[in-house]
Tubulin-specific chaperone C (Hydra vulgaris), 323 residues
Amino acid sequence: YVMAEENIDIQRRFEKRHQDMLLMYEKRRLERLKDISEKVSNSDVFLITFNKEKREITELLNSLNSVELLMNKLDISNLFETISQKMLILQKFVSDSASDLPSYDIRRAQEILSEIRNSINLKRELLLPKTKFAFKSRVKITEKNGNNECGLKKVIDSTESSLLSDQTFGFSNLVGKSLSLNPSECHSKCINLINLQDCTVEIKGCPSAMQIQNISNTIVHCGPISRAIFINGCYDSALHLACQQLRIHSTFNTNFYILVRSKAVIEDCEHVGFGEYMWRYDGITEHMQEAGLEFNVNNWRNVDDFNWLKLNEKSPNWFIINE
């Protein structure tokens, strides 16, 4: 009972910090919109409307990160249907505006729509898979503070909060822990990291996908992911990730060391850095092959910011890490 109360308190603190960061970002965004509202052209009106509608779609998509554990498949399907309808409306708006706007504005809008469709399809595949995976019910956790001098790993049963649910696999609601998964524990599974603070995470193997939500001051090293990684709410952290596709939302003051086949996509982010994925461990070459990735094929410098539509200027929200 005491453990349950502590977990609820930790979760509430994580959620409050996440909401505070989102409010701060929204305030800055509204201030920027106010600065340009006095002088608007057709292009400005289009971009403001497009961004507003796009934001509603991505917020619906991101909401699946927090409510998916409480929803049944019918609820999830209905939400995807709502998202699809909004996408059709936004596509029609772009098509109807084409004759009044510069070609580069329309081209950029179409690129963003294509990326959103891709994110929707990836999320649908993740939450409504055609086949079911079998998930292990036990994980290993090591104390980070060094009190366990023997270095023995403590096994936590799935009834405790470290595991997320019967359908997911990973860690949640933890502070100051060293967490690890070996190849047999994470093979072809969807890994979830939710509400972690002051933790280190090391995942060796080839998971199928990964979702990360509300982590702060945390270091993550992960082996190659065969599909996509979704991140929503990451602060003051460092993540070493290899995957086919990477989607990052509402993240601040965080460095990403990545290997990715397609462009990484960020949205509602500030001061996020990108460097090359350099993590190595015994067996990673085989895991890279299994994930369909290659060390010499890496678009880590190619980042697309959904909040920055100017083709001739680089987004100020991300930077290349100089190390």
Notes: DSSP finds six helices and 15 strands in the chain. The radius of gyration is 20 Å.
